[in-house]
């Protein structure tokens, strides 16, 4: 088989630029920090290394077609390419992806008993390849998240984890977590991110072997229940170092707006109640967004029933919808974005590379611990298409500030100032475009405490307080700045920010075959303001 990453000393020179986008020809400058120039898959005619570390297992992707050229030059050549920390704590906005499959998201040969894993039967790339591509597309962190089947916990422990260690050594610029895409009992998939500890592999193995609904053979329906998921969350809650669980593509199985499938609203509340520091949120923007490229009937994210809205799941994108109902209870329930990368669209797949289209930015130091703490605490904003690379939202009163994911306590009747600052990165994105933010919305909703109806998916108090365009925001060097005052605050609320490059006041259902590069959005996580 072909090992799809370059070993030291075998990296080709600067590759040719992509011709898929609308940008000019020639090498493209990355809009976000990546590594130096890297070739891929023999672009410069260099030999590729061949390696099969597991000759006893069948290899499904030896026949996979070659990947095209990548459009990058060194980040050091781009002015202002790397975001700089603006706080004395050493933190900065670090882009990442928590949902990435490797060749250890296996297929299954069911002619044997029990079924035999077929390496690269679903995802196709080695973990070091994913890490290299994450670096090339500007990511600072990533999570290896392979999903399972009968006895897949052994695949993760004995095959995926050693390759993750190799990837950490080969691509140290990307902070890499071990995890899995949890075959969630009683629900759809979720990302599991475990802390970087001496026993991280054993922790993933313990969770998967004990709780993954697809682990037992013969299949056992009793493993696929919500009570079993709550047992799993209790077990994770009691770990000395707690992991994080994020519900992936939560409405992909939803038949219509406000109707839900495998993940339902009461269930996600149960998760958060059971382990609030473990079950912390959901994917706002699902992966598989390249499925529409060249496919007129492709549905963004694979949402073939009710579509995404501006590339985002209805649980996030619907103003006053499920996410706002969770925030209206005062829940720390955050959103993320991911690639769900299995096979890149250039090779006939449905996926972008990690960081190629969507990014989850975490305000953190460059360490496993602080990145995971940032996700757990909601110090996160998400964007598609590199619409922006830095976003600061600050709520202030009398010299006291709170930022994205934080809480500001004020006296009743106080005036609270909200300041929004964003940075539009320079140069083209991975599609060769240079998108600009057309509008920014400040959204607020009341926090009224726990709902009586656990299936509630609406917060009727949610409103767009203000909309800004380039005619109304200020400019401060490279930043765009907006200000708003919440006057005479008499009750608890939250504020959050979103923006787009397009004209839609609210994100509309995405039509089949829509080019995802033309419809870009960003969302911040909230700030809570408590007035007492």
Structural descriptors:
single chain, 532 residues, alpha+beta, 15-stranded mixed sheet, 5-stranded antiparallel sheet, globular, disordered N terminus
Order of SSEs = EEEHEHEEHHEHEHHEEHEEEEEEEEEEEE
What value does the average pLDDT take? 87
What gap, in angstroms, lies between the N and C termini?
64 Å
Name the overall outline: globular
Helix content: 10-25%
Largest sheet: 15 strands, mixed
Number of DSSP strand runs: 22
User: How much strand content do the residues show?
Assistant: 15-25%
Oligomeric state: single chain
Q: Which radius of gyration do the C-alpha atoms yield? A: 22 Å
**Coarse structural class:** alpha+beta
Low-confidence stretches: 1-58, 61-85
Helical stretch count? 8
């Amino acid at each position: 088989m072909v090992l799809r990453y370059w070993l030291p000393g075998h990296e080709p020179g600067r590759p040719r630029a992509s011709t898929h986008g609308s940008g000019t020809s020639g090498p493209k400058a990355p809009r976000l920090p990546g590594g130096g120039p890297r070739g891929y898959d023999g672009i410069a005619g260099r030999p590729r290394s061949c390696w099969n570390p597991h000759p006893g297992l069948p290899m499904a992707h030896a026949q996979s077609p070659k990947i095209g050229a990548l459009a990058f030059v060194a980040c050091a050549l781009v002015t202002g390419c790397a975001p700089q920390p603006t706080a004395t704590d050493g933190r900065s906005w670090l882009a990442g992806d928590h949902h990435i499959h490797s060749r250890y998201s296996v297929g299954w040969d069911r002619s044997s008993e029990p079924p035999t894993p077929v390496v690269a039967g679903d995802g196709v790339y080695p973990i070091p390849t994913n890490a290299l591509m994450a670096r090339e597309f500007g990511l600072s962190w990533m999570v290896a998240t392979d999903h399972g089947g009968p006895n897949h916990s052994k695949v993760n422990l004995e095959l995926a984890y050693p390759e993750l260690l190799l990837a950490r050594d080969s691509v140290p610029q990307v902070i890499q977590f071990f995890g899995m895409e949890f075959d969630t009992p009683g629900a759809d998939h979720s990302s599991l991110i475990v802390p970087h500890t001496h026993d991280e592999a054993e922790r993933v193995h313990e969770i998967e072997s004990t709780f993954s609904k697809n682990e037992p053979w013969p299949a056992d329906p009793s493993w696929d229940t919500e009570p079993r998921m709550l047992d799993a969350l209790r077990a994770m809650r009691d770990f000395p170092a707690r992991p994080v669980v994020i519900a992936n593509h939560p409405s992909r199985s939803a038949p219509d707006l406000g109707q839900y499938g495998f993940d339902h609203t009461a269930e996600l509340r149960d998760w958060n109640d059971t382990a609030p520091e473990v079950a912390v949120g959901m994917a706002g923007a699902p992966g598989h967004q390249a499925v529409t490229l060249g496919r007129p009937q492709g549905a963004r994210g694979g949402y073939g029933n009710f579509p995404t809205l501006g590339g985002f799941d209805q649980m996030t994108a619907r103003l006053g919808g499920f996410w706002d109902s969770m925030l209206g209870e005062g829940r720390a329930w955050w959103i993320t974005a991911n690639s769900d990368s299995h096979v890149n669209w250039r090779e006939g797949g449905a996926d972008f590379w990690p960081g190629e289209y969507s990014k989850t930015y975490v305000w953190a130091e460059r360490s496993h611990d602080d990145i995971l703490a940032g996700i757990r605490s909601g110090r996160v904003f998400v964007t598609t298409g590199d619409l922006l690379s830095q976003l600061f939202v600050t709520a202030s009163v009398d010299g006291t500030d709170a930022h994205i994911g934080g809480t500001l306590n004020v006296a009743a009747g106080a005036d609270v100032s909200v300041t929004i600052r964003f940075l539009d990165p320079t140069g083209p994105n991975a599609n060769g475009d240079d998108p600009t933010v057309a509008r920014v919305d400040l959204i607020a909703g009341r926090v009224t405490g726990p709902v009586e109806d656990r299936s509630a998916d609406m917060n009727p108090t949610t409103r767009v307080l203000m909309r800004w365009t380039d005619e109304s925001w200020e400019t401060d060097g490279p930043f765009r700045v907006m200000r708003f005052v919440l006057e005479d605050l008499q009750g608890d609320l939250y504020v959050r920010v979103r923006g787009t490059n397009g004209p839609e006041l609210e994100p509309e259902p995405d039509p089949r075959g829509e080019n995802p590069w033309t419809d870009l959005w960003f969302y911040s996580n909230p700030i809570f303001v408590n007035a007492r």
